[in-house]
Amino acid sequence: MKAYITRFAPSPTGYLHLGSARTALINYIISSQNSYSKFFLRIEDTDKLRSKEKYKRNIIEGLKWLGIQWESEIQIQSKRIDRHIEIANKLLKDKFAYKCNCSIEKLNKKREEIKNKKLKIKKVCTTCKNNQKIQTLNSNYVIRIKIPEIGSTTIKDNVQGKITINNQEIDDYILIREDGSPTYMLSVVVDDHDLNVNYIIRGDDHLNNTFRQLFIYKYLNWNIPEYSHLSLIYGEDGSKLSKRHGAVNILELKQKGYLREAIINNLILLGWSPNPNGNEIISIKEIVEKFDIKEISKSSSIFNYKKLNFFNNYYLRIPSNKKIFEDFCKTNNIMKKYYIKDKVKLLKIFEVYKKNLSSFDEIIDFIDVYYNKNYTYSTNQKFDKIFDNYFYDFVAKLNLLNDWNTEKIEKVIKNFIIEKKIKFVTLGKPIRFILINSINGPSISEIFTILGKKVSIERLNQYIIE
Ligand code: GLU
């Protein structure tokens, strides 16, 4: 396999979300498939208005949490502006670029015309490049790349296949703005080239940019990288995955108590299915062994939270992940209090509830009743009268039990219902309600175990037979 140099190049203009995490993950996986490959992280912060430090921190922290590791220090695009300008000037000198001083009004007029006449062309400035006077200007100009008006350009993409477009459909985009700052279109190519990136894997929203960027490589005689443009992911309603569908920010998912393994497992199966036998659980190690980008679907994938919950439930039940639950409790503002009060009880509750949890934070809805020292059961719930015939006897039996654990308690219950020839629900439902004010929930023996003998008996004693 080839030694690939890949990179993830987010602009810090938003949080690390599921879609960009998938791009980062796939870059990381490809570069982990052999020891010669490398993966870089570059923060593309040249858009000064929209780039924010908080987003940069979020992206870095989110990637680290996912376990995505990059080579050497993080590349910061804004630190390399001089180099970008140097390249623009070289393109200008070699006549692959030109100065343009068209006014916004003039350009907009041209855009209008192109739109109204439904023309296929994209070039809005057609005169400046041949105007000698403009080419000698010292200020008040932008630098545009010169894209041929004839011919076509082809990309062989590992995911999208072979795509060709006419050069007249590619605009003479700006390389250097009027204030002297380089644009993303220029910086990304220069930085990728200087880092020796030979494989660019990114969202297919960049496909158009690739046709445009290829000209910089060609004009400078630089090696053109391999490309994979990943289809974007959508929500179940078919619109682009966003906050409207649920949490999309990776660190927010972490805070809700999602595990990285679940997120990775879910993301990698969007458009790719490694196991013909239908087993969907796959570890990062196995993904690295099996992943082949050419097998990934080029149609867009739907992100489904039910699926994420399924994976998360699977991973949070794994015994060795109990420690992650503890970490979650230590950092979650609500859970912290319960953790400090009684850690052992908290872990017992987790053991009982985990089979039904989609994420750790769901436990918050059930927890308080187990800690409430002033617990009272809600007397307006009426039980079948037959329950009263057995209640005191049952409490007396329980009181005799000294070895208070789920197994022993279960035995007491079982013997009791056999002896009295009653159905389990006759006893179980009312008892559960008396203990936790809910008809549904874990088995009563599990509830007894969580509460401990003393509290259990105290709560049962709240019930008064009328
Ligand atoms: N900075 C670009 C973005 O966040 C990505 C650039 C690239 O991957 O080429 O959309």
Molecular structure report:
With 466 residues, the protein is mainly alpha-helical. The chain folds into 4 domains: 1-70 and 231-316, 3-Layer(aba) Sandwich (Rossmann fold); 81-176, Alpha-Beta Complex (Glutamyl-tRNA Synthetase, domain 3); 319-371; 385-460, Arc Repressor Mutant, subunit A. Helices cover 46% and strands 11% of the residues. The protein has 19 helices and 12 strands. The strands form 5 sheets. Strands 1-2-3 form a 3-stranded parallel β-sheet, with helices on one face. The protein has a 3-stranded antiparallel β-sheet with strand order 4-5-8. Strands 6-7 form a two-stranded antiparallel ribbon. β9 (199-203), α7 (207-220) and β10 form a beta-alpha-beta unit. α12 crosses α13. It is elongated. The model has no long low-confidence stretch (mean pLDDT 95). It binds glutamic acid (GLU). Glutamic acid binds next to loops.
First and last CA, distance: 79 Å
For this structure, what is the CATH homologous superfamily of the largest domain?
HUPs
Give me the secondary-structure category.
mainly alpha
Runs with pLDDT <50, length 5+? none
Give the CATH topology of the largest domain: Rossmann fold
Q: What is the β-strand count?
A: 12
CATH class of the largest domain: Alpha Beta
